[in-house]
Structures are given as C-alpha cells and as structure tokens.
Amino acid sequence: MRNRLTRTQQFFTYLALILVALFVLIPIWELVYLAFDGGIFSRPTSFRVFPLKPTFDIFVEMWNRAGQNITFLQALRNSLIVSFGAAFLSVVLGASMAYAFARFRFPGRQLGLFGLLVGTLLPAVALMTPLFLLVRTLNIQSTLLALIIVYTSFAMAFTVWNMRAAFQSISKELEEAAFLDGAGNFLTFWFIDLPLALPAIGVSAIVAFLIGYSEFAMGWMFVTRSEQVTLAMTISGILIQGSRHWSLMAALSVLMSIPIVVIFIVLQKTLLERMSFGNIKE
C-alpha cells in the first residue's frame, strides 16, 4: 500500500510546483507582453501584467519584414528547410553509426566513441574553422545546404550516443530469431532494431531539429546573403535596429515559436504511442 502524503507535505509539494510553474510562465508572459505593447521605446525596466498600448502593428511589421530584404515566411521557410534537413541527416547517418557501435566489434571502436564524447564537450566555436574549410572546399558557401551540414555536425555526437544506448537495450534474442529466419544484418536492423529504437530516434530528431531552428551565432559565418538567413538569425539582426528592438524581438520570437508549438501538438500523440511501443524488449 502506498503511503499517502500528509497535509503539510501536500502543501509544500504544491507550493514547490507553483513556484516552478511561475518560474517558467512569467518570462513567457513577459515576452508576449513586450510583443503586444506598442508604447515601449527604450529598455523595459518594470514588470507589467498587461500592455499599456496593446497593438498588432508590431506583428504586422515583423510579418512583412522580419529582416533585411526578407519576409517572415521566407525566413520561416529557410528555418524549416535547415531544421528538417539537419534532423533527417542526423537520424540517417547517426542511426547506422550508432548501430555499428552497439552491435559490431571493429578496430578503433572505442577510439571513435571517445572522439564522439569529446565532440559533445567542445564548444561549437571550436568547430568553426574546420567546418568553414569543409564548406569552402565543397563550394557551397552561403547556401542552406551549408547550414544543414553545419547543424548536422553539431547534433551528430548526441544522436549517436543516444541511439547507441537504445540499440544496446534491445534484446539480442530478437535479432537471433531474425537471423534464424534468414534475415541479414540490414533486414534485422530495419525491421527489428529501428522500430524498437523509435523513441530514441524521435528524441534525436527533435534535438537536431531544435539545434537547426534556434542556432544563429555560427550561422552568420556560413551565410552572407540576406535571402538565406533563418528566423533565429533575423532575431539577432534586430539588435541593430535601435531602441525599439525589444518589442520587435519579442514579436518575432512569438511568431517563431508558433510553428514549434504546432509541430509538437501534432506529433505529441504519435511520440507517446511510439515511446510505449519502444519499451518492449522481449
């Protein structure tokens, strides 16, 4: 029988949960408040619950011109292409690499895993020079493909380690049964291991997607044309637009978050179902 919480324990538990909720929700509300307040012309210095001069003009301005010579929809298209491209490459390349590290023994295996681990500890700026040389060698400077390759490299280390752990947790008896039925390594990987590792694959894809969708600092090193910038890069560019940049950044941040919220709402049921399915090991 489970022990029930006392009234004092329940009180402090609910109090802690309320404080955590306020810690998360207040900054989000302040962002929305700044986006709708048309009366802010300098750095905001006080907390307000509601805007003094509510207006949609800031959203209209950002919709029509999110950055220099680019609309919101154009920047959103670039962000989605780069994010989905990075997620796709990370999953495709990372799944095969993770399966090899999890199931096969070959020279340099431990060294490769250690190299990936070191890659997760290095700051992104440490990869700037080799990635720039790679992009220049491939002659894809200032293209969305360059950004996809860059953000894929950022996500690969986490992707491989995460999916490797998932493949290792799958019972080997299932693979042996497939081998007895005549399946080879590829068919076993495709029909047995991949379906059971879908939760980890989904998490890896989401992380890679968010990296491509939200990163901006490194992106400026590989993009020089305004029509190739992403939404995150346009937000950083607003800083040079004078004292009104607080409201502009807030409005563009709200617009930028809408596609992510929609994607998670649409995929929420599927992800939960796959997580339940992926927990089967025997």
Concise summary:
Helices cover 71% and strands 0% of the residues.
Brief descriptors of the model:
282 residues, mainly alpha, 11 helices, 0% strand
Mean pLDDT across the residues is 83
CATH class: Mainly Alpha
Uncertain segments of ≥5 residues (pLDDT<50)?
A: 278-282
CATH topology: MetI-like fold
Which series of helices and strands comes N to C?
Answer: HHHHHHHHHHH
Domain module tally: 1
CATH superfamily: MetI-like
Number of helices, counting only DSSP H or I runs of 4 residues or more: 11
Distance between the termini: 29 Å
Strands, total number:
0
Q: Which structural class matches the secondary elements?
A: mainly alpha
Shape verdict: globular
Give the proportion of residues in helices.
Answer: over 70%
Tell me which CATH architecture applies here.
Answer: Orthogonal Bundle
How many whole angstroms does the radius of gyration measure? 23 Å
Q: How does the major sheet shape up?
A: none
Strand percentage: under 5%
Q: Which helices and strands, and how do they pair?
A:
Layout: H1 7-36, H2 57-64, H3 72-103, H4 109-121, H5 128-138, H6 144-169, H7 172-180, H8 185-196, H9 198-214, H10 231-237, H11 245-278
Helix pairs in contact: 1-11, 2-11, 3-6, 3-9, 4-6, 6-9, 7-8, 9-11, 10-11
